[in-house]
Design brief:
Helix content is about 70%, strand content about 0%. It starts with 8 loop residues before the first helix and ends with a helix. Helix 8 runs antiparallel to helix 9. It has a two-stranded antiparallel sheet with strand order 1-2.
Length: about 300
């Protein structure tokens, strides 16, 4: 059965996350509580919504997208838990609540992040909706593993930490973000495309082009929000980039030019969707949300 309406997707995503996470009472209970706290405490769910929106564009059944949508959000939650640790960004606030190492303790936060990553791959591997087409499962596992490992998100985090206090040029900043946040956002679109192996290569490339540009726009918007928003709206500490002497687009280009750049990337992302006509409206809606968001 195909998607009926985009409006039920957020509820579908929450239900799938709830199902995927072990119950809080399952031993070791403190670890499972921390995992649930990290995942179920809000968040915009942009990544799982991108998986479903791409699937809607391609006419993929929603049932075949639940596992990859859940997996990307579990990976995202793990990356936030680890990013907030004292050894990394040392943040006390996330999604308007104490970060996991503050609410629990540092060791629990490290282990909850580790276990969320394993759980993501467990969910992807156990997806019965594609069991009769094992090549789909293998392609999706490969896509997710590449996106979150040393040549993707983790590699980007290393570049990010190395850039603190340094003056870097725009090409280096772009490389950093293509890895740190761009790789997982791009994987969201690819995971849905992997679910339709018959997809023509030019369409696959168009979707990839969309994801690349909207991923970068996401990051530029994030940098702008760190300056123009406030801690309450953001649900995380405003001004953290400046406090950590991070290289950002506003620092490099100026605030107005950074805003213009986000809009240009948005336009380029939209242009890539032209071959899909109205079918790509769910992706257009998420793209608009990414560049206009206030948190
Ligand atoms: C620690 C392995 C490891 C990786 C960390 C993605 C990342 C790499 C760290 C996140 C740090 C950060 C705040 C990056 C800025 C962009 C970003 C990912 C913001 C948070 O994503 P949203 O806005 O968050 O989608 P919600 O809370 O809505 O899910």
């Amino acid at each position: 059965m195909a998607h009926d309406a985009s409006s039920d997707i957020p509820a579908r995503i929450e239900a799938a996350l709830e199902r995927a996470l072990p119950a809080a009472a399952t031993e070791p209970a403190r670890l499972h509580e921390a995992m649930r706290y990290a995942v179920l405490g809000g968040g915009k769910r942009i990544r799982p919504r991108l998986v479903h929106a791409t699937g809607q564009t391609l006419g993929v059944a929603a049932e075949q997208l639940d596992a990859p949508a859940t997996a990307v959000e579990l990976i995202h939650a793990y990356s936030l838990v680890h990013d907030d640790l004292p050894a990394m960004d040392d943040d006390a606030l996330r999604r308007g609540a104490p970060t996991v190492h503050i609410a629990y303790d540092e060791a629990t936060a490290i282990l909850a992040g580790d276990a969320l990553q394993s759980l993501a791959f467990e969910i992807l591997a156990a997806d019965t909706s594609v069991a009769e087409r094992p090549a789909i499962g293998a392609a999706r596992t490969h896509t997710l593993a590449l996106a979150c490992g040393s040549r993707g998100m983790v590699g980007g985090q290393v570049l990010d930490m190395a850039s603190e206090g340094q003056t870097i040029d725009q090409a280096t900043l772009e490389r950093l973000h293509r890895h740190k946040t761009g790789a997982l956002l791009r994987a969201c679109v690819r995971l849905a495309a992997d679910t339709q192996p018959s997809l023509a290569s030019d369409r696959r490339e168009a979707l990839d082009h969309f994801a690349e540009h909207i991923g970068l726009a996401f990051q530029v918007r994030d940098d702008v929000l760190d300056i123009e928003s406030d801690t309450q709206t953001l649900g995380k500490t405003q001004g953290a980039d400046i406090a950590h002497a991070k290289a950002t687009y506003p620092a490099l280009l100026g605030l107005d030019a950074a805003r213009d750049y986000a809009n240009r990337l948005y336009e380029q992302a939209l242009a890539a969707l032209a071959p899909f006509g109205d079918d790509a409206d769910p992706l257009r809606a998420i793209a608009a949300e990414i560049v206009k968001r206030d948190h």
